[in-house]
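Notebook, p. 212. Picked up where the previous page left off. The plan for this session was modest: take the two constructs that came back from the sequencing core last week, fold each one, and keep the raw output in the notebook itself so nobody has to go hunting through shared drives later. Recording the first one now, exactly as returned: residue sequence, then the structure token string.
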Amino acid sequence: MRENNLINQALAKLIMNDVDDFLISSEDVASVYQEHSLITALMILTNRKYSTIPVLNNKDQLVGLINLRVIVNEALKNQNFDLLVLNDIQVKDIELVKPIMIHRNSSFEYILSQLVTDNFLCLVDENQTFQGIVTRRNLLSRLNHLLHSKDLTLTDQQIEKIKKTASQLAD
């Protein structure tokens, strides 16, 4: 986990005090256990209208992600698209997507950089126990709220300094 700390720490703290500011608790996240069948995973994905969900073992540890593409590919292996075959295949029997994992001490900069390419990140504890997810949507919602806040005021001099710094970083 490479963290550069190029982000102004005062701005980072303004956006995110700690990871709990954006956390959707594991109790509120649709997930599937690796012992479940692929048809169960498919039903969870389609009923919740998600494209990807976490996969857990019987100790609630994160073991991977499963998405619609992986399940459809499995159903297509027989040359005829047969969803019934998904009843006989357990989630643990297929290759799962490797998740991006974060911890409570992950920096805002690391979380932000990972959310550029991923819709959500999985928060785990030191035992890999799944704690929940941090979503791009929650981060952008918070940023939108802050940018529209009447309480957030910057002087013209501060704005120019931010613009200059941003311009230098872009070069």
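Okay, moving on. Second construct, recorded in the same format:
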Amino acid sequence: MTGDRGAGSDDHGYRVPRLLRAAEVLCADGRVLRGRVFLPAAAESHPGAMRAEEWMNDPAVFFPFLPDGEGSPVILNKEQVLVVTVSAAADRDDTMDQVPAPVRRVNVECGALRLQGDVVIDMPINHSRVLDLLNRPGAFLNVRDGDRHHLVCKARVTRVNELADAPGPRP
């Protein structure tokens, strides 16, 4: 089979509308890439665009990334990504924001990298520990740090500790 689609073929029926969102990717080898990620304009489980956290936790291993200053995207392997940092606005879900959920302040270590921020425990009350959040399905943990969300590859986390100054339930 070749890549030819034949005369008169129409791709337009197969394209999924995407939104470009600014992101910084820290790769496992230490490289830092700044550019844009392509988020689906419509989520399957809620109204609006797919959140960056949902997108990174999608089971697909590879994703396109458009580096700043380049005209075409590159393909990155999620398993080689340490952290993807996006604007909190790119990860906003108005429906989830209306539901109170416990928030814990944590330090997350990935080797020499240390991040501090909040994690939202949006799980049943009998699974409301940070440990439960880390062990739930999904390859990335969302560590919220003010106007930025750090999507941390859980397979690369070496240590997490909960801090005493946790803010309590999410407003």
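Notes on construct two before I forget. The first helix runs from residue 52 to 56.
Flagging for discussion at group meeting.
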